[in-house]
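FAQ: What does the model actually see?

It sees only this:
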Amino acid sequence: MTPLVMIPGMMCDERIFAPQIEELASKRSVHIADISKHDNISDLAADVLSHAPPKFCLIGHSMGGIVAMEICAQDPKRIEKLVLIDTNPLAELEEVKLKREPQISDALTGKLINVIRDEMKPNYLASSENQDIILNICMEMALSLGPKVFINQSRALQGRSDQQNNLTVLDMPVLIMCGSEDKLCSIEKHELMHNMISNSKLEVIKNAGHLPTLEQPAKTTEVLKKWLMH
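And it is asked to produce this:
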């Protein structure tokens, strides 16, 4: 079975996909990509490609989805199927670029925990009884990666290209998935991608925000398994 490459979002690691890895790794080899070492999307995509199997299915969440789109632009023939989860095909808005500057300054001066706690985490999740547990996982992932990775990834997102033209020429099967209550990457952005990509399917996960892999793990895994096997 074709190997699977999974790309976590900003300040996330394999823990963001833990429930899915547990299920999917029994049937195929699973590789978790590292997007921590460069401060631009193009180099991050090239780095993932250099470590990936010759042919693979690709799943990208959030910033990982942005890197996945760039991978498709650089070497589409290696990708058998693509999954984009809670992500954004557009270049970063100027107002968002500007908001990142004080966050980067805080990260440089030992206040990364404040940035994650006060500015990023509140935007992530739909309300649920598991919210605190998931937020703690997010904090642990972010602090284990640290300020240098935060700055690299912030700069990469600031400078990213618009991927819309690349999406219109994709011919591999594409699954687009998002949480129904995602405040960071709206359903409209996912509908936009779905309308651009001829061979695509859109799945909206109910009662989930930006992290459906952890907020609705059983439903997310079920959708992924069914689609990857199809």
